[in-house]
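sanity check this record:
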Amino acid sequence: MTEALNALHALAPLAWPFAAMLAWLAGELGQRWLGLPRISVYGLVGFCLGAGQLGLLPAAHGGAMVIVAHVAFGLVLFEFGYRINLLWLRANPWLVASGVLEALATLVAVFALARAGGIEPLMSMLLAALAMSTSPVTVMRVVNERRCSGQVTERLLHLTAINFLLAVFTFKVVVGVWTFQSSGSVWQAASNSLVVVAVSVGLGCAFGLAVPALQRRVVEPGADATVAFALGVLLLVALAHAMKYSPVVAALAFGLVARHRRVVFSRAQRNFGALGD
């Protein structure tokens, strides 16, 4: 009995790779047979195999799996940031206004429903802040899979960016208020909220300026920049994670600045680069 338990414990680290392979297979079959976006099937498989359901996947509170997840999200959010055009938002101010109005309406509605359900105010605000966000990862995967383009796609991407940034900002503000109520320290509250967002954005912008400059000096003109920027995302995510900042916000800022530095990517990999296959 002891040997069997030890064997199961030794195989526990293999649960994640097997789950990833199962999710990939289910995603391909779901897309082929039912026409579902692959990422929706990935999420469904992860939910079913999670600790709260079938229990085949151990809880990931830290370690290598968190880094892998941050890198995966970082790569997609870098591409998402690359698709955002600030000049387009300047030319369409009503798009910004509608995005802000949509996010605020969602915040108020979810907060009211949570309070009506008896949830305490701070927890209700956290739930409302999470509900404000549209997943950039899901949107990018569906856009790439369906080869979407045009005005509707661009509006969707930019509205998603507005919702995501407002959700992150609101969530961090609520966390700061929660920290202040617990500790009474204004600096600790700010460092756990707004400072995290500001430094994460600063790191992404710094990489967005430094990597193109380094790439132009080292690589021959006209050469593919995709690999260099993929490595930049890996380094940025590892740095932000080690410093306890937000890797996803940093990666989004990295992609946004890279676009406006007029960096051009080839179709080196699916779902990564300017217009993934």
